[in-house]
Write a structure and sequence with these properties.
InterPro entries: cNMP-bd_dom, cNMP-bd_dom_sf, Env_Response_Regulators, HTH_CRP, RmlC-like_jellyroll, WH-like_DNA-bd_sf, WH_DNA-bd_sf. By secondary structure, this protein is α+β, with helices and mostly antiparallel strands. It has two domains: 142 residues, Sandwich (Jelly Rolls); 78 residues, Arc Repressor Mutant, subunit A, CATH 1.10.10.10. It has eight helices and eleven strands. A four-stranded antiparallel β-sheet has the order 1-8-3-6. A hairpin with a 2-residue loop joins strand 10 and strand 11. Helix 5 packs across helix 8 and helix 6 crosses helix 7. The radius of gyration is 19 Å and the shape is elongated.
Amino acid sequence: MQTVLSKSQLFSHLDKRSLEEIGSAATMRAVSKSEVIFHEGDIAQAFFIVASGKVKIFKLSADGKEQILMIASAGQSFAEAALFSGGRYPASAQALEDSELLVINRDGFVRVLGRNPDLAVNLIARLSELLRKMTSLVEELSLTDVTTRLAHRILSMIDDHDSRPRPIVSLAEKKTVLASQLGTIPETLSRSFARLSREKIIAIEGSRIEILDLKKLRELAGEF
């Protein structure tokens, strides 16, 4: 468990003793692909770190439309905010593939938090980051169309060290998952991909996307 904790974004800066304290409040849990980890509204008794695999955090609208809030992969944590927001999970979590999770019990973690001010500061920073991301997501979904969101997502996938005039990226998720992340349906997403291809902004083959016109893609995404 200490290895998982030391590789996590939330706890990687902590010393061995602090990791041991947190580990005393944690257990490992294996989940199968498509298994629901918790439902929106369930009592929040723990938060999680992904040791391996991928987990989606999502909400369902009244008509059953799914909106993915985030996808957590190895080293990432989720459901931290639920521990301090009234005691219930504000969204649901489901495994996208067979996964191993470190489950950190709320009561045990709160005791550790009281003895470790540095950890408390780090957790506040993490929650602030989550708030910023959720605010950006709300703005993106309410103020931009699907093609603009897709252009922005493709740009975010470019490696910082890729200096080629025609960068190449790969879709890490299935298009159904990407559609949910962008707040749309697969058919609408396919039309947006088709538009970008038709206008020779990208060339797509399977999960491989070659950016043919980086300037136009940035303009479409509102990044000048």
